[in-house]
Structures are given as structure tokens and as C-alpha cells.
Amino acid sequence: MSLYAIGDIHGCYDSLRRLLDKINFDEKSDSLWLTGDLVGRGTQSLETLRFLESIKNNLVSVMGNHDLHLLALYYQVIELDKDSKSLERVLDAPDSEKLIFWLKERPFVHFDNYRNILLVHAGIHPEWTIGESITYANELEELIQGEQSKNILENMYGNNPSRWSLDLDEINRYRFFINVFTRMRVLGSGNTLDLRYKGAEPSPDEQIQSWFKSRNHKWKDTTIIFGHWSALGLMIKPYFVCLDSGCVWGRNLTAINLDSKFKTTNISHL
User: Fold this and answer.
1) H/E segment holding residue 240
2) How many CA atoms lie within 13 A of 37 on its CB side?
3) CA distance linking residue 249 with residue 138, whole number of Å
4) pLDDT tens digits, residue range 140-158?
5) pLDDT in tens, 55-87
6) Which domain holds residue 27?
């Protein structure tokens, strides 16, 4: 019995199955953690969702920004454009309702108290404790899984507000939560979100810094596993693990064994 964590799949179904074969994944006894963005730029989002839904009892997957984008398309709060064409097969599939319902139930964070590991797509804000992060994630999950889902999806797009405050109104509060959990990479002064940045890890002399390098953060000794940042790539450091190794960009899909000192297995995207 082993627990594996795998980075962003982005609809690269063939790569996922090859990786599972390489680690000898046993659906009857092993379990998976996934960093989100199950769907997206790859051509096999439909196959990916069908497979993962079929083994749902063996996995935990957190919500990614591309997963949210698919929900917005399904509920018709935005229109399908050329950048979303890869998701059209999911929307047109006869089992789309079942797949979307399953996707909509994905949590924004998953915390394993025994291992003291938190799984999230992009990151958590340095001004939040682990407990606060879980509370805010639960708020979002209740809304997206409930009657207000369409309203939240309609208002989630945008880069503001950039600064956290308990005084934010409801819409800005939930947009900030979504941007932290699913889009954040770097922070500016005062722990402000800079959502325009998509490059590699900033150098120390830049005016921005990686979110996980923020000083005086409130996470203490919890290990955080995340994806989303393909330009950062595979990174395994004490307390921080990035698993987005850029499969959809022609690089690798990565798995780590959480029961074997984070042993790493990669397969290249064909």
C-alpha cells in the first residue's frame, strides 16, 4: 500500500497511464494525490476525467484554475474560445453531467494531519495559518457545490484584490481565495498577489518573491505540496514540493511516493 502524489495532468491521459504503469500503481491498494488541473491544454481531458472518476475511491485531487474554467464553461458563464477548444469534447460528452458533478466536488486544499502535509494547486497565503487556509477553502467548496456556484464562477475572473483583508466584501473575498489557492506564484511587497508573473523563480534582487519564501509565514513546519508553476518545475525542498514538471509543454509528468522518502518517478511526454 503506497500513497503517490502526481503533478498537473492537463488532459495528458496517455502520459498519466504510462506513469501509473511505471510506478506499478495498484488500484486495489494504492492511493493518489493530484495537484489539480486535471484538464486543460492537453487533448485528452475527457479520457482523463473518465479514468479518474472511475478510481475516485483511491484518490484525492484538489481544484485547479483550469478545472474551475471547465466548470465556468459548463455552466455557460463564459463562452468557449479557441484557448478552450480542448475542453469541448468534455462538454459534448454524454456523461458530461456526471464528470462535472465529480469535478465540482474537488476540495481546494487537502490536509493530512498524520503526515502534516497540505496539498493545494498553487499555494496558501503567508498570512494564513493552516487552520485558516482550511476554513477558507471549506467556505469556497460549500459555495461552488451549492446554489451559489454560478455566481461564484461568474465573478472569479480578475486579478484584484491583490492584498488580503478581513474587510473584503463577499465577491472580492472569494475571488482572493480562488486566486491564492489556484493561481498564485509570486508576491510583491506587503504580501500582495502578482498574478501577471508566469516565469521561473525570481532572483533575490527582484521586487517579487516566490510565495513560499515569504518571511514570517504562518505555516510553521507543515509540508506543502503544490503544482501550477510549470516554469518553476520539479522542486523538492524541506517543507515545499512543486510537482508541475511541465508535461503538457512537452516535458515530464512526475510522481513522488509519500511513503518512501518522496522517491521520484518521471515519464517524458510523448
Assistant:
1) strand 240-242
2) 30
3) 32
4) 999 999 999 999 999 999 9
5) 999 999 999 999 999 999 999 999 888 777 789
6) 3-268
Give the single-character DSSP code of 236.
Answer: E
Count: domains in the chain: 1
Pick from 61, 83, 58: nearest CA to 73: 83
User: Helices 45-54 and 13-22, interaxial angle, to 10°?
Assistant: 40
List alpha helices for the chain, DSSP H.
Answer: 13-22, 45-54, 65-74, 88-92, 96-104, 130-144, 149-154, 170-182
Q: For residue 104, what pLDDT is reported? A: 98
Q: Residue 166 sits in a domain of what CATH number?
A: 3.60.21.10
The ranges of the chain with pLDDT < 70 are 270
- Check: CB of residue 77 under 8 Å from CB of residue 71: no
Query: CA 258, CA 33: separation in Å to the nearest integer?
Result: 10
**Residue 167 CB burial class (10 angstroms; 0-12, 13-18, ≥19):** exposed
pLDDT of residue 229: 97
- pLDDT of 270 reads 59
